[in-house]
Amino acid sequence: MERLRPFFKKAEIIDPVLYRVNLGGFPIGMGTDSWVYEGTDPNGKPVAVKIFPKDVVGQIGIPELQIYQKITRKAALFLNGQPVSLHKTRGGKDDFIWFVNPITRIGTLKSSGEASSVNPFIEGPTLERETDSDRYDLAQTEEFLEQLSIILNRRLGTKAIDVVPVNIKITGNNILAITDLCAQLQRFRKERV
After folding, report:
1. Backbone φ, ψ for residue 135 (5° rounding)
2. Of 102, 97, 100, 101, whose CA–CA distance to 81 is shortest?
3. Percentage of the chain with pLDDT > 90?
4. For 3, which of 67, 73, 129, 168 is 20 to 30 Å away at the CA?
């Protein structure tokens, strides 16, 4: 099994102004180790800019982000376009295809030097919201995602992947988009050699 190693290339500078992100505003999402802001790239496409604050315990750095970017790319090769069905609470099912949202850039934030990443912004409700609304069976969905995490961890040679409903969006064109493969990137710290 291949050991995961960061690329160790020089990190680029990520300028929030370039992505029209107001860091003084409220983030659209907050994870255990990051804040997510919505912005647009220079071509006008929506992006998510994720910042890993320095004051968070177990702060994430560029090496963890590089490993995570590599894992995300491998997961996309394995999973993108694969069919999946979700069982509805009141019977029946909905059919989707998988999409793993890529991390397009990683670097340090221009203003603070904090690690950050940029990826396409995925519009749509989270799978967590849809299970909370009783559209999909929560127990079956969580069991299914737990099994998917086990398969991805084995396939990709890691133990850090944990796919959860809050990190999956349902798009209007029947795509289940995984926006985050791992709720805590600190887990990748243990993967380094």
Report:
1. -70, -45
2. 97
3. 60
4. 168
Distances (CA, A) of 146 to 2, 47, 86, 164, 168: 23, 28, 14, 8, 13
85 vs 94: CA distance, rounded Å: 6
Please report, as a single letter, which amino acid is at residue 71. Answer: I
User: pLDDT tens, 113-128?
Assistant: 899 999 999 999 999 9
Contacts of residue 165, Cβ cutoff 8 Å, sequence gap at least 6: 126, 127, 128, 130, 131, 138, 141, 142, 145
Phi then psi dihedrals of residue 176, to 5 deg: -95, 110
**Between residues 147 and 66, the one the model is more confident about:** 147
Q: Which of 55, 42, 41, 47 is nearest to 121 (CA)?
A: 47
Domains of the chain: 12-191 (3.30.200.20)
Q: How many Å apart are CA 10 and CA 63, to the nearest integer?
A: 11
Q: Are strands 105-109 and 12-14 parallel, antiparallel or unpaired?
A: parallel
Cα–Cα distance for residue pair 57/23, rounded to 1 Å: 20
Amino acid identity of residue 183, one-letter, is: A
CB 46 within 8 A of CB 40: yes
| CA dihedral sign of residues 106, 107, 112, 114 | positive
